[in-house]
Design a protein that fits this description.
It contains one helix and no strands.
Length: 47
Amino acid sequence: MGSDLYKITGVIKNIPENSHLQFEVLLSIATVTSQNPDFNNRFGGNF
């Protein structure tokens, strides 16, 4: 990721603190695999 540019396509408002979805950034799997084609071959598969 580093200095790459991304297009914001959505905003999530006010995630509760007790949510199991805690994040700073969400990226689509298509974006991740386009930049790192090897991604699904690590961590036991991420499909």
